[in-house]
Amino acid sequence: MEAANFFLQLAVILVSARLFAEVAMRFGAPAVIGELMAGVVLGPSLLGFLQPTEIIQMMAEIGIILLLFQTGIETDARRLFDAGPRATVVAIGGFVLPFLLGFGTSYLLFGHELLVALFVGGTLTATSIGVTVRILKDAGRQHSMEGQVVLGAAVVDDILGVLLLAVLYNFSRTGDISLIHLGTVTLFIAMFILAAPVAAKLLSSLIGGNYHRSRMPGLVATAIVSLVMVFAWLAHLIGAPELLGGFAAGLALSRRFFLPFGLVIHSNKKFRDEVETDMQPIVQLFTPIFFVTVGLSLDLGAVDWSSSYIWLFSLVLAFVAIAGKVAGAFLLVRDHWLVRSAIGMAMVPRGEVGLVFAELGRAAEVFDDATYTGIVLVIAYTTLFSPFWIKLFYRLYGDREELTTTSRARQAE
Amino acid sequence: MEAANFFLQLAVILVSARLFAEVAMRFGAPAVIGELMAGVVLGPSLLGFLQPTEIIQMMAEIGIILLLFQTGIETDARRLFDAGPRATVVAIGGFVLPFLLGFGTSYLLFGHELLVALFVGGTLTATSIGVTVRILKDAGRQHSMEGQVVLGAAVVDDILGVLLLAVLYNFSRTGDISLIHLGTVTLFIAMFILAAPVAAKLLSSLIGGNYHRSRMPGLVATAIVSLVMVFAWLAHLIGAPELLGGFAAGLALSRRFFLPFGLVIHSNKKFRDEVETDMQPIVQLFTPIFFVTVGLSLDLGAVDWSSSYIWLFSLVLAFVAIAGKVAGAFLLVRDHWLVRSAIGMAMVPRGEVGLVFAELGRAAEVFDDATYTGIVLVIAYTTLFSPFWIKLFYRLYGDREELTTTSRARQAE
Asked: What ipTM, to 2 d.p.?
């Protein structure tokens, strides 16, 4: 591709993301909806003006990893840890229930083959951590107690999704499930989750401890982006989702991250502040590219809107996709129903994670065209409408004590 | 390419650029030498660990365009305008003399064919605006009077180079020179130089005048990068070098840019400050990628070091390449010899602009392998050694009144 065309494409993506986001906000919708819609409108679904080229996709990947990095920085590790047990319940519930419901709907109701039904179930297990994090941010609830549970659950869900993807992919090739491989990957990911933030903390302290010695500006931007990229690569290396690397690096740099066993590393406060101010514009530059690319990938132009099978299949499946995730959150029996609803709804958007499943199903020739487009529609419904409900939900119930206690407790600190 | 490999590559580029730059600075050399050497060492010349892939090259292009944008922002338009006549003399002198010397050396001394000699001369006309700007910045002389002349001359040189490239390319294909095409391109570029900063100023005022209305962060990063990308694309569209678009956009946002005919557009000071702070980390992130890529492109591993022809050819040519540029600056007969020397030396590095000429010569099968590698060596000498001389020069003579008056005058303002 010619460089100049790429520059124009990049400008069109950034400007349209912004314009659509501003319009969305005027109408009271979250900004992320605007960015997703910019992709839908400019992409193959409507105007066909933009194609997600390899370079744009790489920049989008950087965008989601940096967004998770920023999320990590803003996360209170102790509170995330405290939310851990509930997050795990939500993640497993919101993984198993949609899988069973999706599998059942496909296998029993629509008479699909076993492998097709397994992939349909698999697609419904996804939660788009990017969209989820953005929705909470747009609603100003990323630091709320339910926000911590959702964040933790989305991370766990992503890991479970990668494991299931490996299993299904192997099964579609060999008709077999390798438990040894599965166990190894699980072990590696578990080790990564424990070791990565510590390693990132040590590395960042090394940078922070030496950066006053440099007489050349720009250390923070290059060093921190490198750190994030290395951890994304490491995550990929051991079979984990790449954004987990970004999240681990961010967590390590967060204000309240402490090493285990009471080890203390002297944190350079000036360095940490500079990391936040310098990384912000870089994150802001790359993340809209990600959300526009998700919109671009939703090829709604390929949908045969006259097919009653596609309508029926996608609507039934969307219903179970939503019900499954919300039901997963309702397993938190000791929480108020408002908290459970907020968590459940935030877990609904499938976004790019669902698309990865759907693409794999199509590439492995498991999905025929009609089933594939039906699933893309389900992903579109859950991704494009969830931000609305959540915003509406918080407008109606956001002031209720059950949803504000933790936020207030935090402010009082 | 797999995303994870790209992440690793990006991290390796950023980290090695930094480490080499820090080492260079410890030894009193300019930082840009370190970044260029990082590319030479990691690239095909030595370790062969990094290849300049398409994505890396696109990010490098963004890097040089953003560097020129930042240069534009830091430029005082009036002082650049004042330096204009002298810059034009230096540019034309430093264009014609190396061309004639290179052509003569190749045609008469080494008995090359006419077309080969024309391309050899063409390659020597180049000045790497990126390396030149960085050298001046590393030496802290970008705001000096001679810095303004060099900047203006490098911009004019780049435009002349594009015109010559078009002529030579056409000539190598058809054996003919189309003066109409040449005239059209010249006219377009002239119009762009006059109109682009004004248009960019109007657009940026539009953004700056509305940005307080947005309740969503990140406007500056996305809007300004888009603005720069659009102007780079526009520059390419009319046949000008893309970085000219970046420079025009930067100039429009500079502190002392005024519209012609006494027109005044209300500049939002807060917006302008935010542009500077927010764009800085983005520029710092992308520019090292550019300089490492220049180093990667210098494939010194392909040089047959036992060939006496290559040694002789490259050393003689390097001598005339340097002499030609310095002689061009000495046409400023009314300036002190120290000023003329400083300007002449800063014009020497050929960098990526020379490589574009050399590549075209190879692609058009004008250069054989030995001549091509000889020319790459000339580019390497002029690019890798110039920063040393200039730094040394300023250490010896930097305090002399002839080189400090304007800087002091500026500080007193």
From this structure: 0.86
- The C-alpha angle with vertex B211 and arms to B210 and B216, in degrees rounded to 5, equals 130
pLDDT of residue A276: 87
**What per-residue confidence (pLDDT) applies to A410?**
45
Choice among A42-46, A328-332, B44-48, B181-185 with the minimum mean pLDDT: B181-185
Answer yes or no: do B284 and A25 touch at CB < 8 A: no
Tally of domains in chain B: 1
pTM (two decimals): 0.86
Burial class of A388 by CB neighbour count within 10 A (0 to 12, 13 to 18, 19+): middle
pLDDT along chain A (413 residues), means of 10: 88 94 84 88 87 90 90 78 86 92 91 89 87 84 85 85 78 75 80 81 80 79 93 88 86 72 63 87 94 85 81 91 90 85 88 80 81 87 86 84 60 41
**What is the rounded radius of gyration, in angstroms, for the C-alpha atoms of chain B?**
21
Which domain, by its residues, includes A244?
A: 39-412
Is the residue at B284 inside a domain? yes
Using a CB-CB distance cutoff of 8 angstroms, which residues of chain B are in contact with residue A282?
A: 221, 281-282, 285
At residue A263, the pLDDT reads 56
Identify whether B114 is part of a domain.
yes
| Residue B320 maps to a domain | yes
Tell me whether residues A11 and B226 touch, CB distance under 8 A. yes
Residue B18, in any domain of the structure? no
How confident is the model at residue A83, as a pLDDT? 80
Question: Shortest Cα distance from A289 to chain B (angstroms)?
Answer: 10
Instruction: CATH number of the domain at B339, please.
Output: 1.20.1530.20
Residues in chain B within 8 Å Cβ distance of A31: 216
How far does the CA of residue B251 sit from the closest CA of chain A (Å)?
A: 19
Put simply, the answer to whether B229 touches A8 (Cβ < 8 Å) is yes
Residue of A222, A284, A288 lying closest to B285 (CB–CB):
A222
Task: Output the pLDDT for position A60.
Answer: 92
Tokens 């950087």, residue located: A62
List CB contacts (< 8 A) between B222 and chain A. Answer: 14-15, 17-18, 284-285, 288
Contacts for B132 with CB less than 8 Å, ≥ 6 apart: B150, B151, B154, B346, B347, B349
Any CB–CB contact under 8 A between A116 and chain B?
A: no
Burial degree of B260 (CB within 10 A; 0-12, 13-18, 19+): exposed
Hey, are the CB atoms on A236 and B4 less than 8 Å from each other? yes
Check A25 against B216: CB less than 8 A apart. Answer: yes
